[in-house]
Amino acid sequence: MITRATPDDVPVTPDAGGVRARHVVDTSASRFARLSPVPLDAVTVSDTFWSPRLRRNNELTLRAAYEQCLTTGALHNFARAAGTASGPFQGRYYSDSDVYKWVESACWALAIDDDPDLRRRLDEVVALIAAAQAEDGYLNTYFSLDRVGERWTDLINKHEMYCLGHLVQAAVAHARVTGCSTLLDVAVAATELVERRYRPGETYGACGHPELELALVELYRLTGERRWLELAVWQLDSRGRGVLDGSEYLLDHEPVREQRVVTGHAVRALYLYAGMADVVLENGDEDLADNLDALWDDLTGHKTSITGGVGARWDGEAFGDAYELSDRPYNETCAAIATIMLAWRMLLRTGDGRYRDVMEWTLFNAVLPGLSASGTEFFYQNPISDGGRHRRRPWFECACCPPNITRLLASLPGYIASTSTKPRDSIWIHLLIGGAVSVGLGDGTAVTLTSTSGLPWSGSYEVEIMCETDATFELRLPQPGWSAGAAITVNGSPTTAISDAGYLVLERTWTTGDRVRVTYPTPVRLVEAHPRLATAHRRVAIVRGPLVHCVEQTDHTVNVLDLRLRGDEAWQTATLPALSGVSVLTSTAARCPVADQGLYRTFDPVTSCRLEPAELVAVPYFTWANREPGQMNVMLPLA
Ligand SMILES: [Zn+2]
Known about the structure:
By secondary structure, this protein is α+β, with helices and mostly antiparallel strands. Helices cover 32% and strands 19% of the residues. The strands form 3 sheets. Strands 3, 15, 16, 17, 18, 19, 20, 21, 22 and 23 form a 10-stranded antiparallel β-sheet that branches. The chain has a 7-stranded antiparallel β-sheet with strand order 2-6-7-8-14-10-11, with no helix packed on it. Helix 3 (96-112) packs parallel to helix 6, helix 9 crosses helix 10 (266-283) and helix 10 (266-283) packs parallel to helix 12 (333-350). 51% of the residues are buried. Zinc ion is lined by residues 332-334, 380, 400-401, 404.
């Protein structure tokens, strides 16, 4: 038996003066969750790829985000609402959420590494938020002073419950990490206003931008108060009833129990689906679960770019129709993060590795590109082809993406591993990141898995089991979709693992010092799209392991738009001085010279293109736009 937390329906309150397990998403007592995540403070990351990135996030990116909250006036708005600053409201009507996401990020960062300066700033910001709250519990600085009469009058556009949702998530993180209820008390008081105004069973109410739903479920998980789960369900069931003008864009076109086609604003849709998945984890709602399966199939089967980016339309940051995926999709960074949020919840319910695959793929190829190598500049949109003008920026007037990246990276250790007890004790590794994972078995035995990983540059992964006494459990390691035929040894002897829904399962009685080594083949693969994806017709992406690659003009003397692949290229790995620590791929491919050719001409299959050899350098897509601007392409034409 692996120790699980308090069963459902038993109130869980923050320990007085103590610190709760630092889960990001806590399904340890969720009745319909198969998996329970290992809390992020029971995970230590020691990984050549991830450690410097997580350190940079917690030191540089978090600091830059704080400075931006200062300079954009987002923090000033709270001081103004608290009566300690004057002047007009600054920024967008949802800028409070930037601060809340920064608070959440800071909490996750402090859960792993104490940083006195960060802790001091966090304490100051939390005190500022608390001071800005009105006596009746209301807290939204856009409406605090100037627009008191406009509160709750524009659920479609004004994001009041969206901001509240981020406050709740920040408060949950704060309570779990600090053991202090200061921010939690603020969030509960503010949420009780929504509870009274849109009382379950009486008055429908939902926000034009979902977010509160999933936050309410996490609040339920923290406090054990069932009213928050009931309010989350009520918020979901308020859709499809005209509360938001029946808008398909706002996911109000039909009840959530009938929504089976991915549509609307991408981030809003995915936050809504994540909230649905959270509810299913708690109450096992079969209708919602069935719809989520259909939505997932539509999302990944028809509406995802090769990079894992989603939300193809620039018009409205929205999903397009099936196969409506151009080479310049919108692909908002937040939408990729939301995909991971949804996939994580689906994985926790089912233990199905296809959700793990999407998490990993999206993390490497759709989230990491959103952050510069310096750690201080961000992409909002993520096209897979560009002429050199799309560059990362320090912040945005609509600043949703940067603090979303900081909170995901700060909490990443919480997504590495989980445990399950049925049908037998299992320890699951989801992300192949080196470090240590500690869990406690039901008989009191402490087990620590210490791993080293060559990912994403090589497919080597090794884990050593440390336990006080011999321990019997299943070790479940990823069987990624990008790799076939993994070779496994236990203590040096070749071993066969059971393959189960995307995981390699090794069950035995383990002795301390046992070592499992997995070698995942990582050949270069050329990946083509579905024939109906017209813009990718006769084009392929260069993929190795979990990394999508691209070509950038700066690495080539010929125009990269002229490059062609035959499909039988021999590939080598190399490094570039300007991309330290990054492995790139090189090959002799082909180019189609186009001198003196007009934009259009009559097609002649014989003379249309005379190929010449050309050297090709493919860099991981997440590294693009960190050097001089120029043409970039992911999908390359076949010769
Ligand atoms: Zn965003």
